[in-house]
Amino acid sequence: MTFRDYKKCNNKVINLYKEQRKNQSLTYVKKSIKKYCLFNRKDKFWDLFEKTCLKDMSDPDLDAENFYHLYQTAEGIRKDGHPEWMQLVGLIHDMGKILYLKGCKEDGTTEDTQWGIVGDTFIVGCEIPNTIVFPEFNELNKDKYDKFGIYEKNIGLKNVYCSFGHDEYLYRLLKFNNIDLPEEAYYMIRFHSLYLWHDKNEYEFLENDKDKKMKSYVKLFNKYDLYTKSDKKENLVDLKKYYQNIVKKYIPDEIYW
Question: Which of 47, 128, 160, 188 is 20 to 30 A from 209 via CA?
């Protein structure tokens, strides 16, 4: 199976990236963080997890409900003997897509828009590299910045704004709920869609020493995020029994979202 082949993807994928590139400005990102990252609702973790069922409109590889991909990623990590915290990251890494439950079409955060939820991310507030997927859409972006834009050299990725979506939302959700995971886990969650950084080696001018150290962990995680994708439907009943025990160690029964 070939992965991330955007030359053969359908118009739905192409249109999503066109809208994402056009609308994901620095102003939009700041507005979205303020609007969606209030975390003033509370629900059971597993109820929310099982609502991560939308089909990712940006994915050229699969056309299945997202929670199958979550289990597949976690299982790949588990089979290679990685620690429980990383298995948990595999299980929850796309859970931020529950954004669609409180989204609106204007923001691209509904089940049938999604440009404010999914897709490869990029850093706003500076020039968008042409190594991104569909670089021809860069000229549509509302912001016009040079290479550094609003940032200083080696400012660190924690001090930049990425295009808004499920990565940033879940990162902030877990921090808000005081989920005790190692720094490596938080990098995997926050930056797994930032292919420009961990795959194309862009944004090195913004990296600090911690970013350079953590990049290898994000690349390791990406191997499981990408290469465990399959149309095979897993036995979710048995898998849930196993992962319930891991979730219980790190995440309370109810979380704010």
Answer: 128
pLDDT higher than 60, residue 231: no
Residue 244 included in any domain:
yes
Residue range 117-128, pLDDT digits in tens: 999 999 999 999
Q: Cα 206 from chain centroid?
A: 20
Please report the pLDDT score of residue 229 as a whole number: 55
For the chain, how many structural domains are there in total?
A: 1
Q: What angle do CA 31, 37, 40 make, to 5 degrees?
A: 130
Tokens standing for residue 94: 């796309």
Query: What's the pLDDT at 9?
Result: 83
d(CA 122, CA 62): 22
Q: What is the mean pLDDT of residues 188-203?
A: 98
**Residue 13 belongs to a domain:** no
Q: Which residues contact 176 (CB under 8 A, 6 or more apart)?
A: 37, 39, 256
- Name the phi and psi angles at 254, rounded to 5: -120, 145
**Would 132 be classed as within a structural domain?**
yes
Is the residue at 140 inside a domain? yes
- Span 39-67, average pLDDT: 85
pLDDT in tens, 203-214: 999 999 999 999
